[in-house]
Structures are given as structure tokens and as C-alpha cells.
Design a protein that fits this description.
The complex is a heterodimer of chains A (about 325) and B (about 290). Chain A has no helices and 28 strands. Chain A is an all-beta fold and about 325 residues long. In chain A, the strands form seven sheets. Chain A has a four-stranded antiparallel beta sheet, with no helix packed on it. Among the domains of chain B are: about 80 residues, no CATH class; about 80 residues, Alpha-Beta Plaits (2-Layer Sandwich). In chain B, a hairpin with a 5-residue loop joins strand 2 and strand 3. Classes of the chains: A mainly beta (about 325), B alpha+beta (about 290). Chains A and B meet through strand 1, strand 4, strand 5 and strand 25 of A and helix 2 and strand 4 of B. Strand 1 of chain A pairs antiparallel with strand 4 of chain B, so a sheet runs across the interface. Chain A: Component of the eukaryotic translation initiation factor 3 (eIF-3) complex. Chain A: This is Eukaryotic translation initiation factor 3 subunit I.
């Protein structure tokens, strides 16, 4: 395959997200402008100007009309996807790290970092149908986990919130009361900070990637460990194919040591694993720095990776990918 | 391309032309024409513009339009395709080339050939750390003898280890014995001399090479192996003939070796041929002494 290289960002990529139909790709980077691209040919459709800090995460509504972005400028912004206009700004007193729309797009879960004496928190905001009626009040605020909460997503039927972060523990919270329902046991869980979390297409299970050089597959309801994928590099990003039983792990050595070693030593490939057999299928090379973000097109026929090198690489699979046998 | 200066109306003057960058003259140009796409998908676009010299240029662009077979696009996605650009994408330079197709063909690199076992990967893989994790422990520290934990160069007990012995020119036999007894010492031990290696076959091979070997010196430059064979075969069966050839010049270095099957034949050959005139030179034939090292 010949990947399409998109050089719209001037700083390392942080997050990638496809819309539901898979025709738009949203990219977030440490520069201040989230960008939307056509996912078939990589043409840039537009940028969302207004943030004043690194943008860590984003999510798009099911109808692809609203975009929500979490930024280090202590704000979360709602955007009109089509025009790039700002609809609303949620202000916080610490950097916002991750954001996720609930099923139905009525709620959004936002995590904020520990900052200047403020502890990290998980906030639930109600998203109004009409942006002019939007309020900044939190429906629910959960505090407790130590360190950054790198990712929080909605569990099945919006009943739970699944969070993971620097304290290496995966937690499931009640989304109504904010009560802690389950947490991963230290013996089976990750040993180092969890960098990424992604849900399967149906939401029944999710995958976490950690700096302990492994990725783990969990059941969304019971929080039982299903599978474990070990690799030889810290995992920064994970993705799951919606079409085949494949998982993709991206990562590489620390960005600070990239220039001191050979690029082959960096392990900057996106590694494909068989989801069930936990065996490596192959690797896709190309980035000149660690992979920070991975996303699968909802049709499962292409995927994109974003690296510390500032490039988004959009890969459309060759036909033989679909009949790979182990 | 057709150049047509006469199409310019007379009232336009040179001075005006230089200042205008062509945009104001657009009204003078025929409109853009689009022909096709026809049945074969060939589309022609005919445009007119002025070049730097103010000449009118006709540009015909012929492209083939391919329809994607059975492309299932949602109505919304098709709609979004026509959305106007916004943000920084509005004033995008044509030359900025934000989106490029990689010139490199990138393949999904399989860690091993399809159908092979997982164990194979661990050996074939380029990562040495991964090797250590495999079933067979290949990472053995030669200093402390610990398996699978670290390489010799990373041994935490490196400073405590005995200094590696300095090289002493010893007869091969004693060195072999020493290496076999103390494999954990730092000195390099050839695989054939390591403990457990099948030593018998190796040394036997060497012995046979040196058995009944006769050295022939003062050969003429033209002498080749077949000539030597012809000369020596009269004494008995010959197992090997070798003439040393200079690798750079390709000419004979003037000596060679002949191996006889039986010792008696070799002895007779030495007695007869030592001092024999061959090709204007007096041959010297003697027992080849085994190399000492």
C-alpha cells in the first residue's frame, strides 16, 4: 500500500478520530488547530481555530455535525463540523485531557489533569440540542484516581464510565451516582501508566495500551481481562479493526531519546496482532518518531496513524490484507 | 498551444499590459470549455490564459475519469464532500502540498512466512531482547553464567570477574584441552573446540589432509595441477594435488603439495623425484611438515 501523508500539523499528533461513516478524519495535535480531512484522499477540509494550547482529544457526534475538543488551554470547545465555528466553550481550572460523547450525544465525559493543586477529575456535561441553550454546569464530577486520567469513555448503555490513566488502574464508575463499581486488580492489570484506551465497535470490550509494553483486552461490563498482547516498545496508541479480529498497537521509544539512537531501534511501526490468538501478524513502518495516535476507519479497510513527527499517515489496505492467515 | 497576438485589441498598450497580472484581461479570453467525459471516461478541458509575455495560450487538459465500482457512500457523506473549505484550508497555497502520496511502497511486514510456527519468529526476529524471551535461552552471560538476564557486556559482576587471559602462543593440543575444561573463561573458543563439540571428526579431517603429503618446490611457473598429477601418479594412487597460485597475479608461486594414498608410494616418489630436472628446473621434493600452530 502507498500511504497518504498529511502534513497539516506543525507539532506532534495526539489523537485521531473518524466520524461514523468514515468519510472524515479528525486529527488533534500539540499545535492549537484540530483539523478535519477527507478520509479517502487525505484532502484537508478545514481547521478549527480558537484553542490556545495543545489539543489532546476530540470526539464527533453521530450525525457528524458537532465536534468536541479537549485542550491544554483549560477549555473544552464545541464546534460546528461544517463551518469550523465555535459553538460553546467549557472552562476548567486545569488542562482537559480526554473527551467522549455518550451514545445519543446528550452527554459528554471530560477528564481534567491535576494542575496547581487541583486534582484530576472526571466531569460529565449535558450537551444541549441547541448550542445557545448550552450550560457549563457539570452533571457529575468524579475525583479520586491519582495522577492524570488519560482516557475516559462511556460504558454500555451510558450506564458506566470507564477510565484509565497514570495510576495504571482501569476503573468502572456508575455514570449516575459517580460510585466506583469495579477496578482492575494489580496482579492482572498494567504495571505502568495506561496511555490509551479504545472501545470495540459494539462496545462490548475495550483495549488499553500501556507504557509497560503491553496492551490488554477487557470486558466492558465485568472488567475481566480477556487477552494480553505483549510487545517490545511502550504502547502509546491502540486501535481495533471493526472488520477483522485484528488489533493495532503503536508506540516506540521515548521521544526524548529518538535522536540518540538509530531509527530502526525506535520501533516506530504500527504492529498488527491477531485479537484472539494474540500473535503478531505484521508491522507497518513509516513514521520517524513514536506513534501517538491510531484510528481505524469504521469500514475496516483503512487506518491512520499520527506520529510525534507531525505526520498523519493514512493507509488503505491492499486486497491481500483481508485474507491474511497466521 | 496557439499563439495569437492579433486578438489583442489595439487600444491596449504595453505599459498597461505589464502592470496587469492578466486577471483583468480575462474578459478577452474565450470561456473555459469542458468536453466529456465520453464513454471511455475521457474528459477534455480547454482553458485559455496569458503567459508571462502577454501571449494567449490555449491549454488542453485530457484526463480519464474513472468511476469507482459499487462505491457505497452515504448520502450525508456525498453531501459533506461538497462542503466548502474553512479555517486554514481556505487560503491553502497550491504549492504547500500538505497531502502527498508516499513514494514508497509500504507493506504489512510479516514477522515470519505464513504457516510457520511462532517459535520461528523468535529466532528470525531482529530483536535480540526478544530472543532472550524465547524458549531456548540464547542470552548467556559469559562472566557470571547467568542465563536470560543480561549480555556479557552488561554483566553487573563484570569488574569482579578474572581478567581475561592474555594470548599465549601455545600448541594447539594444549589450548584445546584448556578451552574444553574452562569454557567459562573470557577467551574466544572456536565452535569446533568447545566442550561438547564433536572434536573427533574435525581433527580426523585435518589428519587426513596431512597424511602422506609431499611438498614439491622449485616448480616452473607454467606447472599446473594436472602436470603434477601426471608426474606423481606413476608412483601410486594420488588423493590430492595442489599447486599454490598467487591470488593477485594468477601465476604459480612455484610450489605445490601431493598427497599419496599410501606412505610407501610417497617415499618412493621423494627418493626418485628429489633433484629431478623438470621443465628446466631441479625439483625439490620432501615430506610436507605439518604446520605447527
Amino acid at each position: 500500500m502507498r500511504p497518504i501523508l498529511m502534513k497539516g500539523h506543525e507539532r506532534p499528533l495526539t489523537f485521531l478520530k473518524y466520524n461514523r461513516e468514515g468519510d472524515l478524519l479528525f486529527s488533534c495535535a500539540k499545535d492549537h488547530n484540530p483539523t478535519v480531512w477527507f478520509a479517502d484522499n487525505g484532502e484537508r477540509l478545514g481547521t478549527y481555530r480558537g484553542h490556545n494550547g495543545a489539543v489532546w482529544c476530540c470526539d464527533v457526534s453521530r450525525d457528524s455535525m458537532q465536534l468536541i475538543t479537549a485542550s491544554a488551554d483549560q477549555s473544552v470547545k464545541l464546534w460546528n463540523v461544517q463551518t469550523g465555528a465555535q459553538l460553546y466553550t467549557f472552562s476548567f481550572n486545569s488542562p482537559a485531557r480526554s473527551v467522549d460523547f455518550s451514545v445519543g450525544d446528550k452527554l459528554a465525559v471530560i477528564t481534567t489533569d491535576p494542575f496547581m493543586g487541583v486534582t484530576s477529575a472526571i466531569n460529565v456535561k449535558r450537551i444541549a440540542d441547541d448550542p445557545s441553550q448550552q450550560s457549563g454546569e457539570s452533571e457529575l464530577t468524579i475525583t479520586g484516581p491519582a495522577g492524570r486520567i488519560n482516557r475516559a469513555v462511556w460504558g454500555p448503555l451510558n450506564r458506566t464510565i470507564i477510565s484509565a490513566g497514570e495510576d495504571c488502574v482501569v476503573r468502572i464508575w456508575d455514570s449516575e451516582t459517580g460510585k466506583l463499581l469495579k477496578e482492575s486488580e494489580p496482579e492482572v492489570g498494567h504495571k505502568k501508566p495506561i496511555s490509551s484506551l479504545t472501545k470495540s465497535a459494539d462496545g462490548s470490550h475495550f483495549l488499553t495500551g500501556s507504557l509497560d509494553k503491553s496492551a490488554k483486552l477487557w470486558d466492558s461490563r465485568t472488567l475481566t481481562l480477556i487477552k494480553n498482547y505483549t510487545t517490545e516498545r511502550p504502547v502509546n496508541a491502540v486501535a481495533m479493526s471493526p472488520l477483522l479480529d485484528h488489533v493495532v498497537l503503536g508506540g516506540g521509544q521515548d521521544a526524548s531519546s529518538v535522536t540518540t539512537t538509530d531509527h530502526r531501534a525506535g520501533k516506530f511501526e504500527a504492529k498488527f496482532y491477531d485479537k484472539i490468538l494474540q500473535e503478531e501478524i505484521g508491522g507497518v513502518k513509516g513514521h520517524f518518531g513514536p506513534i501517538n495516535a491510531l484510528a481505524f476507519n469504521p469500514d475496516g479497510k483503512s487506518f491512520s496513524s499520527g506520529g510525534e513527527d507531525g505526520y498523519v499517515r493514512l493507509h488503505h489496505f491492499d486486497p491481500d490484507y483481508f485474507n491474511i492467515k497466521i | 498551444m496557439s499563439v495569437d497576438k492579433s486578438a489583442k485589441p489595439g487600444k491596449l498598450r504595453w505599459g498597461e499590459l505589464d502592470e496587469d497580472d492578466g486577471e483583468d484581461l480575462d474578459f478577452l479570453l474565450p470561456p473555459k470549455q469542458v468536453i466529456g467525459p465520453d464513454d471511455n471516461g475521457i474528459k477534455k478541458v480547454i482553458e485559455y490564459k496569458f503567459n508571462d509575455d502577454g501571449n494567449k495560450i490555449k491549454i488542453t487538459t485530457t484526463t480519464r475519469v474513472r468511476k469507482l465500482a459499487k462505491a457505497r457512500l452515504s448520502k450525508r457523506a456525498v453531501e459533506r464532500r461538497n462542503w466548502p473549505k474553512f479555517g486554514d484550508a481556505v487560503h491553502e497555497d497550491v504549492g504547500s502540498r500538505l497531502t502527498m502520496v508516499s513514494t514508497e511502497e509500504i507493506l504489512l511486514e510479516r514477522p515470519r512466512a505464513p504457516g510457520t510456527k511462532a517459535e520461528d519468529t523468535k529466532i528470525a526476529g531482529d530483536n535480540l531482547a526478544q530472543l532472550g524471551k524465547g524458549g531456548a535461552v540464547l542470552m548467556v552471560c559469559r562472566t557470571c553464567g547467568k542465563k536470560g538476564d543480561h549480555w556479557t557486556s552488561r554483566c553487573p559482576y563484570k569488574d569482579l570477574a578474572q581478567p581475561t587471559e592474555t594470548f599465549i602462543d601455545k600448541p594447539a593440543a594444549t589450548e584445546t584441552a584448556m578451552a574444553a575444561s574452562g569454557a567459562t573463561k573470557g577467551a574466544y573458543v572456536p565452535p569446533s573446540m568447545r566442550a561438547g563439540a564433536e572434536r573427533t571428526s574435525g581433527s580426523d579431517m585435518r589428519r587426513r589432509n596431512e597424511e602422506n603429503s609431499v611438498r614439491v618446490t622449485n616448480l616452473s611457473e607454467d606447472t599446473r595441477e594436472p602436470d603434477l598429477l601426471e608426474l606423481f601418479r606413476t608412483f601410486g594412487p594420488v588423493s590430492r594435488v595442489y599447486v599454490a597460485i598467487d591470488q593477485k597475479t594468477g601465476v604459480s608461486r612455484g610450489f605445490g603439495f601431493v598427497n599419496f594414498v599410501s606412505k610407501e608410494d610417497a617415499e618412493r616418489a621423494i627418493n626418485k623425484l628429489n633433484g629431478y630436472g623438470y621443465d628446466n628446473l631441479i625439483l625439490r621434493v620432501e615430506w610436507a611438515t605439518p604446520r605447527t600452530n
